[in-house]
Task: structure prediction
Amino acid sequence: MKFLLNPMSVLKHYLPRSAGAIGICVLFGSLTACGPADIPTGINDPNEARNRGVHEWNKRVDTQLLGGSEEGAEAEIPLSEDEGQPTAGIDDSIEGGATDAPARGASNALIALSNFGTNLDNPRRVVNSLLQVRPGDAAHNTLRFGINSTVGILGLIDVAGAAGLPEIDTDFGETLHVWGVSEGNFQELPVVGPSTQRDTAGMAVDFVMNPLWYVFPWPQNLVANGFTWAGEATDRFRYSDTVDSIYRDSADSYAQSRLIYLQNRRFEMSRGEVTENDESIDLFEELYGD
Result:
């Protein structure tokens, strides 16, 4: 309950002690003109014992909330080929061949919720793109926001994605990377899951600087942000097979989730440029050791 009432207290607990250094780089990043941080190699997890404890707690919460299904959600949201986003339209079929109306209705509702939350979150992405000095990305997401907010019925339908304008996702964690802040230690956060010191700090800043807090009055701004959080929460159902496989089928779910997160995050930070350093993390070595 304390987390729900004051999420910043939890983020503060998990922020690195070197947060002052991050704050200095944030303050003077534009003046020092520091380039993007190097993409690290290997695993930096000095607090593994504590992280594993949080990971086990997250697994128990996941099991309690979803009933401990071993086979994944039956009505997983169908995805498009562009960056794993929900399909723009309404799909008549559900994973596994189910065609009953309740399953279709649940899937379509989750798609609409995800689209709506993603659209509301576009102003935050635009702000981060501007802070990263990527005006093209900012213009791209602004155009997406305009199209989906009008033709897409307030963002319920991803018309822009269907028209060839996929979402360019970014956050303040990437902004810190562009400003030269290093990745830091790996962390497992309650409910949120895998993160790093830099990304945890980025989440805190994203929470505070989201334009939705200031565009709408209270309590409408809380409702608006609530929809963006709900949209993010649908990822658990969109990728249910993958998450269930990691949590319940892998020999070491913590090591595998850590590996997948770091590889994916570093790929995002490099903007899709795979380097030889990506081979430094070996899946089987990480899961089973020597």
